[in-house]
Amino acid sequence: MDYIKQTFESYGYETELQPFQFPGWNCGTSSIQLSELTVNGGDVHTFEGSVNDTVTAPLTYVGLARANDVSSADLQGKIALIERGEISFYEKIQNVLDAGAVGVIMFNRVGAEGNEFDYAYDGQNILLQSAES
Predict the structure, then answer these.
(1) pTM for this structure?
(2) Number of folded domains in the chain?
(3) N or C, which end of the chain is more exposed by having fewer CB within 10 Å?
(4) What is the mean pLDDT of residues 73-93?
(5) How does residue 130 score in pLDDT terms, banded at 50, 70 and 90?
(6) Where does the PA domain lie (predicted)?
(7) Is residue 14 a part of any domain in this protein?
(8) Using an 8 Å Cβ cutoff, are 115 and 45 in contact?
(9) How far is it, in rounded angstroms, from Cα 3 to Cα 16?
């Protein structure tokens, strides 16, 4: 902060440091339970900003969750199983949310590595989980 303050001052700007609260986000511990199979820990991640809740609903695979993938799927009251790739996380989540999904599980496509998933946007109030395959 001091560096930024000093840099602006060197250009002739008047500066002032003002403290403020920056709320952190704790994703807690995530798990996915499918019938008798439970996946916990390192392979399951919660999207930052998603709703902290438990959802029990049928699971429906919607591929990449592009608009045409979702339009033919009955997602009302269901959890959308989404493959990662091609379009943004925002678009995927919004497409299934608009179709009535109550939750999202997103997974890496075969051969993909990494567990860096994005975050939920304002208004995307849905339970979001991601899993490495």
Answers:
(1) 0.64
(2) 1
(3) N
(4) 88
(5) very low
(6) 55-116
(7) no
(8) yes
(9) 13
